[in-house]
Amino acid sequence: MSNVDLSAFVKAYDVRGLVGSQLTPAVVEALAAGFVDELGAAGTEVIVGHDMRDSSPEFAEAFARGASARGAHVVSIGLCSTDETYFASGFFDAPAAMFTASHNPASYNGIKFSRAGAQGISLATGLAAIRDRAQAYLDTGGVTPVEAVGTVATRDVLAAYAAKLRSLVDLSGVRPLKIVVDAGNGMGGLTVPAVLGEAAGLPALPLEIVPLYFELDGTFPNHEANPLEPANLVDLQKAVVAHGADLGLAFDGDADRCFVVDETGAPVTPSAVAAIVAVREVARVRAAGETGEVFVIHNLITSRFVPEAIEAAGATPVRTRVGHSLIKDRMHETGAVFGGEHSAHYYFRDFWGADNGMLAALHLLAEFGAQDQPLSRFAARFDPYALSGEINSTVEDIPAAYTRIVDAFTARGEFDELDGLTVTGAPDAGFWWFNVRPSNTEPLLRLNVEADTAERMAAVRDEVLALIRALEL
């Protein structure tokens, strides 16, 4: 196994690689052993769950072998969503591993690691050390068992997970809603009936769910389970209109992200959802008697309206770089009640600071279902500006592209480098900003633009894209 280079597929926030050529049972055993060793988890419980990909059950079993060999007592929760694994990690206060490649194609799989209490692990906070320990095992012939090896048991947590989410948001009083849900053949096909329906034994809600691709199938026969790509929303958009539904929800493969479309099939931006949930969470903790400063996190790519809504609600916005492990760390550092990202990751203090797309959907349904406007009109109040969405460009010479942008905008806006390069226009030039960030793994530059009008946004977008791609204007 010494020819395996884990650094090729142990990423900034998780493990993500090709099945067979990169991820194998032996590699997973070594990563499990490194995980237990690094966290000092021998003699304690470690949670393992997996999605519906064909390779996931075998990998979960390999993880159980490696972890138990190093003395951990493995608790397998079987098929689950990623946020269900976070629930188990928080509820049982145990480290956890989730086997999923999220929205990646079927040829991929991966692992999302958590410390006890659903705390994230990144390269900077332990993942690099796990990788290096695993690499040492692979280079020296495999995992060596400790004298007191651990046990392996199973536990079903779906009903407890559903009950936890229902306890955080009360939907019993909303008006009747018809909702089309596209699970993309991913884990939403398991969790949606449990949380929004009666599959987990919970009382019926005033919701009519129209299911789309609820069959668990890791080959993704209908479309990739990546709602961030517009092409993967087309079926949902058509179904919402065809069924006369009030809205549509789309989940990614491991069901930790949730995207929303309105009754016309138009997408509701994750920034609008973040603003809606932020205002609700601030109001809730204030009503519960919280008198100190309330923090809400947003990454620097969310709409300007998100911090505006947070401040209007009487809370303090905290602007961060992009990245779920980083934001989980900031949630714990600040005690923030909520955090939102442009990518439809939503984080909750009442969910151990972890992200949960299903919980964000519950908040949206509660707020929307308490009034009579259609979602298109209701959501427009939280989406007043023009956003470009993320635009990727292949760029071989990223420093040269940066230089062109800096030269063009030096006298026209303020610069900051919290994450990539953000340029904000001077107030007398109308409201606009853009951010350019390099990819961690590919020769890509990612561009996001926002402005007070669609025309201004398009003008800034086109100018920056021309500079990125070295085109003539």
Automatic annotation (TrEMBL):
Matching InterPro entries: A-D-PHexomutase_a/b/a-I, A-D-PHexomutase_a/b/a-I/II/III, A-D-PHexomutase_a/b/a-II, A-D-PHexomutase_a/b/a-III, A-D-PHexomutase_C, A-D-PHexomutase_C_sf, Alpha-D-phosphohexomutase_SF
UniProt keyword Protein transport, yes or no: no
GO biological process assignments: carbohydrate metabolic process
UniProt record similarity statement: Belongs to the phosphohexose mutase family.
Top-level lineage group: Bacteria
Required co-factors: Mg(2+)
Alphabetized CDD domains for the sequence: PMM_PGM
Gene3D superfamilies tied to this protein: Alpha-D-Glucose-1,6-Bisphosphate, subunit A, domain 3, Alpha-D-phosphohexomutase, C-terminal domain
Example GO molecular function: metal ion binding
Residues annotated as domain Alpha-D-phosphohexomutase alpha/beta/alpha: 11-125, 160-265, 277-384
The protein's name: Phosphomannomutase/phosphoglucomutase
Pfam families for this protein: PGM_PMM_I, PGM_PMM_II, PGM_PMM_III, PGM_PMM_IV
Domain (Alpha-D-phosphohexomutase C-terminal): residue spans on this chain: 390-466
Species name: Protaetiibacter larvae
Keywords carried by this UniProt record: Isomerase, Magnesium, Metal-binding, Phosphoprotein
